[in-house]
Design goal:
The complex is a heterodimer of chains A (298) and B (465). By secondary structure, chain A is mainly α. Chain A contains 13 helices and no strands. The radius of gyration of chain A is 24 Å and the shape is flat. In chain B, a hairpin with a 2-residue loop joins β4 and β5. The longest helix of chain B is centred in the first third of the chain and has 23 residues. Chain B is globular and about 75 Å long. Classes of the chains: A mainly alpha (298), B alpha/beta (465).
């Protein structure tokens, strides 16, 4: 009897395949399967109650779900752009520093070191309408004599959340762009100076194209981060009031864990992944184009 | 008959069956089967007549998941007394707040990790896990159960099953107010001139609204505040609907709040917000924000829980200290007082392999001595004898007496949260709509229609009707 002989490449890859299957593939398949059932955490037997695409249809027809989807896209667009511009500015400034730059770089990364939960609590207090720092400062300085409802007003609540997001993550952009700045060769910049380019022209036509691949990588990473924004929002507003700050993952988290409707939550989760996939593909395409422009290999 | 078995009643009063060693193997088998049946029946019958807190459980180890927090620790220190008395061991494998425990219980149900025996429970959460906990009635005597306040026992049942024993952590809200506002002669005169009746702590929710608007001097001082999100605001709305003579749900659990009573209850919240008589951030407030708010001395009237009584009058903790009055909660237009209540309790899991021991522990943790210990720190008891005890104990302290009298009255109007497993899910559908009406995004009619439709759809999806 001949023994089954597996090709050596497969045997060598087998440990990795088994680990990946156990930690990625099986949970993924299980959650995908459960999105076609009426699975409720409190009633384990419902995991076998196949209901077809009911959960997907329900999500597709839910105005609240699509409102949360739209709000997440809005948050993503504003937060990413603001973070990118501020990060770029910060990196350019730090790049000019000649003394104490290392300490400055470390200090710049402080906000990233805080847990998002902590950041949420911090800004919840800062923006509290009654005892919060901002309102008290405005009232003490005589700039306002009303309690501004930062976490309640439809626009201000989104602003407050975006502010917290930007505060905590701008340094991701700054650090990556700074790495890009360090990698720029000196020659083209010097050649541009010799040719009489202004600083703006040098920045616009030499520095920025060199930085674009770094910016796109940062955008891709942060878009995944922001698309699944949860902790900060959960603490600051929990999606409220009146769903004014409801994002995809606060909604999905509440459906899955508080309402215990895991099947429906998973279906919404899978639809939401479209968003992450779209932004990732978009930024990677941009990244390839930028690299091509610089003459780098694709 | 060669069988010799004796009931040996130890100090612990449990039953022991001894089979004669000289019998043949077959006889022993036969006898053990017969006697197992007999002893099981006899054991249960006997246990049912004994004080449940005693038992001989040598070698038994019970795993427990308990609510954690400084205020609950004093009681847990008594567990070692029960261990010494019964020979059993208690292993606390989880200590979290109720919201975290709730998630953990749901995960346990999903994963089937139900090896533990005793769990902290809460009357507002209990109906979500109908299959998790066992009926405690067979393990307790009717006399023992009768020693608890009847409304608390009623709120501890799902159907006929007594799924938990209430501990001395009973919650119902009464009215806290700033006394000096009512003693001020200028206030009295101005109020009488504006509203046509004497200024006194309110007895109806309409008076409460008038006074809250009257006392407001925003942004430095507000007439009142309310919990503005999650289960908290729906609970407040629920009791207000009852006070207005309505119901949140019909008997078949279809939504019943899109009614005149429901609309008039919601307009109370909307009117106060639109009049600016509550802090503008109130829709994001939960209990802690409310407690801190009243203690900051910037709120005139506050419907709140008994646990805050000491905090509100503490020199170190509250700017309102020495100026706090407490009164039974006001009534709605139907002449019914609000009284949404909840209490902590302890339950025994259905899957526990030593339910007698677990029931004995649960009974011990809620017995008279345990409740005296817990209620000495402030929380309200759920046993009649302990109520009398705490009222007597506080005779020398006028504030504490006022608090207890108010809350004893408040407790007599108490009713639990709607006992459906879909209560929390329903609150998650209702509260954003209540907020939308309060903030003016929707009219009261639209908001209640949307909330009612959403709850109706959810109940149908869950096969409730």
């Amino acid at each position: 009897m001949s023994r089954l002989k597996l090709p050596p490449w497969f045997v060598l890859l087998l440990p990795a395949i088994i680990i990946l299957a156990a930690v990625v593939l099986i949970p993924l398949l299980l959650s995908f399967y459960s999105s076609f059932t009426s699975y409720r955490l409190t009633r384990p037997d419902t995991l076998y109650n196949w209901i077809g695409t009911f959960n997907y249809e329900k999500a597709a027809k839910s105005a609240n779900f699509w409102a949360a989807f739209g709000r997440t896209v809005l948050l993503l667009t504003i937060a990413l752009n603001v973070e990118m511009l501020l990060g770029l500015g910060l990196a350019l400034l730090v790049n000019k520093v000649t003394w104490g730059q290392r300490s400055l770089r470390t200090i710049m990364m402080f906000p990233m070191m805080f847990s998002p939960i902590l950041v949420g609590f911090q800004f919840k207090f800062i923006f509290n309408d009654n005892v919060g720092l901002v309102n008290n400062a405005l009232q003490s300085l005589g700039l306002s004599d009303v309690a501004i409802p930062w976490l309640v007003d439809a626009n201000l609540a989104m602003f407050s959340i975006i502010f917290a997001e930007v505060w905590t993550s701008t340094s991701v952009f700054a650090i990556l762009i700074l790495a890009g700045l360090f990698a720029i060769p000196r020659e083209p910049i010097e050649a541009a100076k010799v040719d009489g380019c202004t600083s703006w022209q040098t920045f616009r036509h030499i520095t920025l194209p060199f930085l674009m691949p770094f910016i796109y990588i940062a955008l891709a990473i942060r878009s995944l981060d922001v698309a699944r924004a949860y902790d900060i929002v959960q603490i600051m507003t929990n999606g409220g009031p009146a769903r004014r700050t409801e994002l995809l993952w606060t909604m999905i988290g509440r459906t899955g864990y508080v309402d215990a409707k895991m099947g429906y939550a998973n279906a919404m989760g899978y639809i939401s992944i479209i968003l992450a996939v779209f932004f990732t593909v978009f930024f990677f395409k941009k990244l390839s184009a930028a690299r091509e422009e610089l003459g780098m290999a694709r | 008959m060669k069988v010799k078995f004796t009931y040996e009643t130890y100090k612990s009063q449990t039953v022991r069956l001894v089979i004669d060693k000289n019998l043949s193997r077959e006889e022993k088998m036969k006898i053990s089967l017969q006697t197992a049946l007999k002893s099981a029946t006899a054991g249960i019958a006997l246990l049912a007549t004994l004080p449940a807190q005693a038992g001989d459980f040598d070698g038994v180890t019970l795993q427990a998941k308990l609510i954690g927090g400084q205020q609950y620790e004093a009681l847990y220190a008594r567990i070692s007394e029960w261990e010494a008395e019964t020979g059993a061991k208690v292993e606390v494998i989880s200590k979290k707040n109720h919201f975290e425990l709730d998630k953990e219980f749901k995960s346990d149900l999903a994963a089937g990790t139900l090896g533990w025996c005793v769990g902290s429970n809460h009357s507002s959460f209990a109906s979500q896990y109908p299959s998790l906990y066992t009926d405690l009635t067979p393990y307790l005597t009717p006399e023992f159960i009768a020693e608890y306040v009847p409304s608390n026992i009623a709120a501890s049942k799902i159907g006929d099953a007594l799924v938990m024993l209430p501990r001395a952590q009973f919650d119902v809200s009464a009215l806290y107010y700033i006394k000096s506002l009512y003693e001020d002669a200028d206030n009295q005169a101005a109020f009488k001139a504006e509203y046509g009746y004497d200024l006194a702590p309110p007895d109806t929710w309409d008076q409460y609204k008038d006074q809250a608007i009257f006392f407001t001097d925003a942004p430095n001082f507000y007439g009142t505040q309310y919990a503005g999100k999650d289960e908290a605001i729906v609970g407040r709305y629920y009791e207000m609907v009852i006070a207005e003579g309505g119901q949140l749900f019909n008997d078949d659990w279809s939504p019943a709040f899109n009614s005149d009573a429901g609309k008039s209850a919601l307009s109370w919240f909307v009117d106060l917000y639109q009049a600016g008589a509550v802090p503008p951030g109130t829709t994001s407030y939960l209990w802690d924000d409310l407690g801190q708010g009243f203690a900051s001395g910037t709120i005139a009237l506050n419907l709140d829980w008994p646990g805050w009584a000491g905090f509100f009058n503490g020199e170190d903790t509250s700017k309102a200290a020495g100026d706090v009055g407490v009164k039974v909660q006001p009534q709605g237009s139907a002449g019914v007082r609000t009284g949404w209540s909840g209490h902590h309790g302890f339950s025994v899991t259905e899957s526990c392999d030593n339910k007698e021991a677990a029931a004995s522990l649960v009974a011990f943790l809620t017995n008279e001595d345990s409740q005296k210990l817990e209620s000495s720190a402030g929380p309200l008891p759920t046993r009649t004898a302990v109520w009398n005890h705490v009222v007597e104990q506080s005779a020398a302290d006028p504030y504490r007496s006022e608090v207890l009298v108010a809350f004893q009255q408040a407790a007599s109007h108490a009713f639990p949260a709607p006992q459906t497993p879909y209560w929390i899910e329903a609150t998650n559908l209702i509260y954003p709509e209540l907020q939308a009406a309060i903030l003016g995004d929707k009219s009261i009619d639209e908001a209640l229609q949307d909330a009612s439709d959403a709850v109706d759809e959810m109940m149908q999806e869950n096969g409730v009707y």
